[in-house]
Amino acid sequence: MAEQIPLSPDASAIFAALDDNRDDLTHEISPGLAYRRLALVNVVFVGLPGGGDRGWVLVDAGIPGSKGFIQRAAEARFGAGARPAAIVMTHGHFDHVGVLLDLAEEWDVPVYAHPLEAPYLNGTAAYPPGEPAVGGGLMALMAPLYPRSPVDLGARLRLLPEDGSIPDMPGWRWLHTPGHSVGHVSFWREADRALIAGDAFITTGQESAYAVAVQRAEMHGPPAYFTVDWAASRASVRALAALEPEVVITGHGQAMRGAEMRQALQTLAEEFSRIAVPRRSRYLEHPARAEDRSAYPAP
């Protein structure tokens, strides 16, 4: 079982939410940046409140059954009938694409992802099998049961621009942060040093159902049961720590800000093998990679 980096007992000091009482039930952590927790995963809203139709972007698309929660939060935050200009994906695991097809079709929006993640979003490849041997609790033990089949977005799927820009997200850049999946990306805004990390690292113990429920403040590596390349994951965490972010939103756990968060992230980067890498996993000796197509089993 991998270790974790606990943060201060007064965890409220590092939680990033500026306003926990918004009517849309989102947590705004920086101007034009908010998130909402949906059971075991977060979705992110990029855009100023009241931005109106096509005046904002959704990052990731939750778990199955979360469509109404996302739509209600979006309308309360941006206005009645307000659709996003785009949906942008950190990656396509089942807990991030739960209602992607429904939302993309109903909102009539493009969906952007990294080219190496495209096979999971155009119906041509499944994800590699989950790995229960990583240990840590019920969430990991159930890994073989999690859906791995791709979704097929058809013509709505677009590739992120090669220059690092993100359509309809001015001031943001995408960063390729593979390891948890081969085409995983994170999003960075230099102006306020805001980082949307996806599952490159997370702030709760996702392998444990108890940790998922209580959301204790901890700095973790990526969810181990679906991470397919630990060397790549280590490099990605080091690259993100080097940015020295002021605020981070991860795919799982609470958003965080400040010096203690940065120190915990730096510790994770420096001691990644001890803290994050499991003792057992098929992907330690045989990582799933795009180069040899081992990351793309048939659906």
Description:
- With 299 residues, this protein is α/β, with parallel strands linked by helices.
- It has one domain (5-285): 4-Layer Sandwich (Metallo-beta-lactamase, Chain A), CATH 3.60.15.
- Helices cover 21% and strands 18% of the residues.
- The chain has 8 helices and 14 strands.
- Strands 2-3-4-5-6-7-8 form a 7-stranded mixed sheet, with helices on one face.
- The protein starts with a strand and ends in a 14-residue tail after the last helix.
- The relative contact order is 0.17.
Quick overview of this protein structure:
This is MBL fold metallo-hydrolase. By secondary structure, the protein is an alpha/beta fold. The protein has helices at 67-78, 100-107, 138-141, 209-214, 230-242, 259-270, 272-275, 282-285, and strands at 5-6, 27-30, 33-38, 41-46, 57-59, 86-88, 111-113, 157-159, 172-176, 185-189, 194-198, 218-219, 247-250, 256-257.
CATH class categorisation: Alpha Beta
Contiguous runs where pLDDT drops below 50 for at least 5 residues? 9-13, 16-21, 207-214
CATH superfamily: Ribonuclease Z/Hydroxyacylglutathione hydrolase-like
**DSSP summary, beta strand count:** 14
Q: Report the C-alpha radius of gyration, rounded.
A: 18 Å
What class, by secondary structure content? alpha/beta
Largest sheet geometry: 7 strands, mixed
Helical segment count = 8
CATH topology grouping: Metallo-beta-lactamase, Chain A
CATH architect. name? 4-Layer Sandwich
Tell me the helix content: 10-25%
Distance between termini? 30 Å
Integer average pLDDT: 89
The proportion of residues in beta strands is: 15-25%
SSE arrangement, N to C: EEEEEHEHEHEEEEHEHEEHHH
The general outline is globular
For the largest sheet, list the strands in their spatial order: 2-3-4-5-6-7-8
